[in-house]
Amino acid sequence: MATQATWRMQYFGGMGERERTIVPRIDDDSDMFGMQFNQTLYYKDRVLEGSLEYGVSGFAGQTNRIRGTEQNTRYLAEGAWKPSLTPEEFYAGYARRIFGEAAQQEMQAAFRILEQNEEYLGWTGKGNFGCCGVIPEVAMANRIYRQPNPFDGPTDWEPFVQQSQQRIEYFTRGAELLRKALRHLDAASPKVSDGAREELNYLRSKTESYALLLDTLVKARKGYLGLEEAFRLYRANAERADLVRRLDASLAMFVEARETGRLTTETFALVIDHPSDLGVLYRANLFLVTGLELVEQTIRNIVNYHHGRDYTQLVAWDKIYREFPQFSSRR
Known about the structure:
Layout: H1 4-10, E1 21-22, H2 39-44, H3 47-53, E2 58-59, H4 70-81, H5 87-99, H6 104-120, H7 136-145, H8 158-188, H9 197-235, H10 240-269, H11 276-307
Parallel strand pairs: 1-2
Helix pairs in contact: 5-6, 6-8, 7-11, 8-9, 9-10, 10-11
């Protein structure tokens, strides 16, 4: 039985003498934050062997960022001359050539885990930090803010709540894999050749900031789940004191998310050596710094309302959304 990947490559057959070129994604714009390791994807989709089998003339890779995708481009370039090239074989040569023979084993182990993480997150990052639009963890607070009465709790957000537990599991496991790869990068550090030091520092910085990003999203999602639980139990006749206690715990998680988001952005900014990373840094500043500050302020107003404190702090959502009505106009 032909696999799905086989049938995808089969689309390139049956065109006679017409020249055709495959356009593989060098990086995916649904996952712009972390470095992407796509060799396993190319291999399982039979991009190389399938191209030879069905008469593809060559590759024309589509890319959004140049920096951090060198391994994907190199694999396709080498595979054009050796279609049977496996990811493991590729990384053996890549790690030895770039980082030196002494560091090869540790670097191969790191690359193997980074490939595993890319596949685990679905090769699209499960929507963790796309190229376009407001990230869901920020957009949800904006939706709550726009409700006629946000102080009675969120409404019409069941799909987001149901999705959040799965996202927490995905992102937690992804962060664990990234930190496992970091341990191999650290072990390789004293062994890498002198000329590879800057490349290792880049790889390490981006892997660490990616893990911190996933931590940030997990904390934000846990904050929302805490908010949902607080109001759900209160509507089921829980004590008001219990509502306030749970709202305080939810707010504390959003504070942690905002702090970790800032740390994520600072870590990413430590090593930038190419303009293509500046677009990612812009989005990190917009959503992980500014966006999560707005989220915290929005939730804090709700919590303050139930504490009997001032709940009318203006939340400047117009920093992200154009022509946004101010809080004071909706009281």
